[in-house]
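ok here's Polysaccharide deacetylase family protein:
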Amino acid sequence: MVNIALVEQESVREKVLAFTFDDGPHPIYTRQVLEIFRSASGRATFFMIGKEMEAHPEIASEVHREGHEIGNHTYTHPDLTKLTLKAAGEELQRAESLVQEITGQPTRCFRPPYFGVNDDILSLAAERGYQTIGAVNGDAKDWDNPGVEHILEHTRSAVKPGSVLIFHDGYGDRSETVEAVRVLVNELVAEGYRLVTVSELLRFPK
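and the structure:
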């Protein structure tokens, strides 16, 4: 049963949380993120843009091979609330087709660019079997390159079991994000957290 709402926090009994990465895949930063999670034996969810998947299919395949989840982040990264429902549906479908080419299966997680949703978009996503995914650490604003300490401070304060965290591995210089994620992953694993995909998080006992 799909929840017709933006999911950013799950009530779970275990110390698990989900790191998510938007706007990739990127040949430099996505691979740096993969190395961090490889070292931590963790998994993440990558909300990929269709056009970037077409540009870097080998990176998308690498993400999938390493056991991470690929989610739908539309084909061209528009604000879906500014499109007709037909055009919004086409954005989802074009990206979905690319995900299926890489993974061999449909994705069930969708993140709207700019968190741009309304009731129509949430319903459209639900009709297509998607859970629409938000995040608890939007104030970190890693997409604006606010500095590693800013990203860390505004993520640490939002973390608790069941949290979904947002970061970016595509579009522009993401070196601050990579460094902040490296620190956070080490800290959270040391605190006993397990790093899981969004789909795994949604299946945990409530």
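+1. The beta strands are 16-22, 45-48, 69-72, 109-110, 131-132, 164-168, 194-195.
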